[in-house]
Automatic annotation (TrEMBL):
This is alanine transaminase. The chain crosses the membrane at residues 146-165. InterPro entries: ALAT1/2-like, Aminotransferase_I/II_large, PyrdxlP-dep_Trfase, PyrdxlP-dep_Trfase_major, PyrdxlP-dep_Trfase_small. Signal peptide: none annotated. Residues 11-229 form the Aminotransferase class I/classII large domain. It comes from the Eukaryota. Its EC number is 2.6.1.2. Pathway: Amino-acid degradation; L-alanine degradation via transaminase pathway; pyruvate from L-alanine: step 1/1. Gene3D superfamilies: Aspartate Aminotransferase, domain 1, Type I PLP-dependent aspartate aminotransferase-like (Major domain).
Length: 253
């Protein structure tokens, strides 16, 4: 069960309902909780299935089989290259546990283990690295503020920003055989050094152009990226009003 569908944080009552259903039907709950550190919506918080399960009493806590998944790639570190993750197994049949343990082959890289330790046990106030950690976590407040204005375009570590183009620009892109949002992203990279993903890479409604912008970046970087994006887009808007001039320059959006 994926407890974090796009733009949604599962509440306690919903979790309890799932647990009751699993208990009634004798099902194993395989819970994907890798986005538990990425809840930015004001007034919402992550609640683990394990916590709710044990607060529902022995009727459920002693019989429902639960496997919770967490990963470095989607945590506060957001580093999939370190290849670190874990499973927390609750109430599993002993015979099945023997099989699960047999799947453990070797050990993960030391760097991945260190990163996992930081994610699970983050620095405390008295630790030398706490100031750096606090700067990274401080980014959450900025993301929360942006979420207030862009909630319909927000998905975990990304903003999906939509934009419109005029008919002349669309025709120009079609003659080149290039999707309009792909060309937009290419010029954004060339002119501002910002690398974003085009919506057409992942599928989108026809003529509903958008780009994907990662927001899990070092402190201060997000503000600069947004400022450059704004400057770039305003320049393109100016080109919209001078299509002939833009065509001469070889750039029309």
């Amino acid at each position: 069960y994926h407890s974090h569908t796009p733009c949604h944080v599962q509440d306690r009552s919903s979790i309890e309902e799932v647990i009751r259903f699993a208990a009634t039907e004798g099902l194993l709950l395989l819970v994907d909780e890798v986005y538990q550190d990425s809840v930015f919506q004001q007034g919402r918080e992550f609640i683990s299935y394990k916590k709710v399960l044990f607060e529902m009493g022995q009727e459920y806590s002693e019989i429902v089989e639960l496997i919770s998944i967490h990963s470095l790639s989607n945590g506060i570190i957001g580093e999939c290259g370190l290849r670190g993750a874990y499973l927390e197994v609750i109430n599993m049949d002993p015979a099945v546990m023997v099989f699960l343990k047999s799947l453990q082959i070797g050990s993960p890289a030391v760097l991945g283990q260190l990163a996992m330790e930081i994610m699970i046990n983050p620095p405390k106030h008295e630790d030398p690295s706490y100031e750096t950690y606090a700067q990274v976590r401080g980014q959450d407040d900025k993301i929360t503020t942006l979420w207030t204005y862009l909630r319909f375009f927000f998905f975990f570590f990304f903003f999906f920003l939509s934009f419109q183009i005029n008919c002349c620009s669309l025709y120009f892109c079609q003659t080149l055989g290039v999707e309009a949002d792909m060309l937009y992203c290419q010029w954004l990279l060339e002119e501002e050094g910002i690398c974003v993903g085009a919506g057409s890479e992942n599928g989108q409604v026809d003529k509903n152009y958008h780009l994907r912008l990662c927001i899990q970046v070092p402190p201060g970087t997000l503000e600069e990226v947004l400022a450059r994006l704004r400057s770039f887009h305003l320049r393109l808007l100016d080109r919209f009003s001078h299509p002939e001039e833009s065509r001469t320059e070889g750039k029309t959006v």
